Amino acid sequence: MVTGGSGFIGRHIVARLVEGGRQALTYDRDPVAPQDGLITVHGELHDIPRMIRTIEEHGVREIIHTAGISDPDVSLEMPVTTFFANAMGTVNLLEAARLTGIEKVVNFSSSSVFGHQPEGVREDVKLEPVTPYGVSKLAAEKLGKVYSEIYDLDVTALRVTWVYGPGNKMPETVNQLIRAALDGKPYVRDEGADHPMPMVYVDDVASATWCALNSVRPPLPAYTITGPDRLDLGGLAEAVLAQLPGGDIRIGNGDLHLHRLGPIDTSATEADLGFRPDWGIERGIRTYVAWLQKNPF
Asked: Does residue 190 carry a pLDDT above 80?
């Protein structure tokens, strides 16, 4: 079962599950049109009885939890709603999983839990989120750890960095850079060129999810998922202009208001989950440009 399976990341995960021979079921708050090989259920994370019925009626044994509010900036405007959706939604899901004997939960967290870590990131650094979104994701991680330790539920959290690629309707930097260049419009920011932007292509996120789903009680409660290239926003703009040289992108020096991450150590992710990213920024941007030339998002 994939919560939020009709969302940006969820759709790619569902496709990866089907490709891998798994029967996929999406559990979404918005109705989803039926598709061949896919079971769709309309439901809320706050409706525990409905989640339990769905799990039992369809023989669900594993859950990938992607549903929730996924934008740090949105959380600045809606802190209570964000916390309720992400923390309360997760504990409801974990409780449904506990009561039905689910074998595995992959919980989507975020690199926002790290906060400012300019010296670098490992799984064991002190977590100091700087937005309500980051706090909500950290709370969800902690709930997963408690359910693992007390109720013996196998829960693995994925701390995903900035995700880009086809199908994202939400505001996202790579999309905005490419779309402006394609539409012949300037992209102008007064500052931010020096801000670290650890990007990960959405297909790599789906592959990492597959690896986590097939891992059996890995030693750490959470793992960081990111791409192979280390860029700042200025370098990201250059990568877009390499594909669209006629674009007008102007970004001043300095950082953004978001969390700042130094080099990310993914050795534990590789060793314990067997995941290594395949999509470098050049390939990812080139593929995304080709997609956006034919699609609105």
From this structure: yes
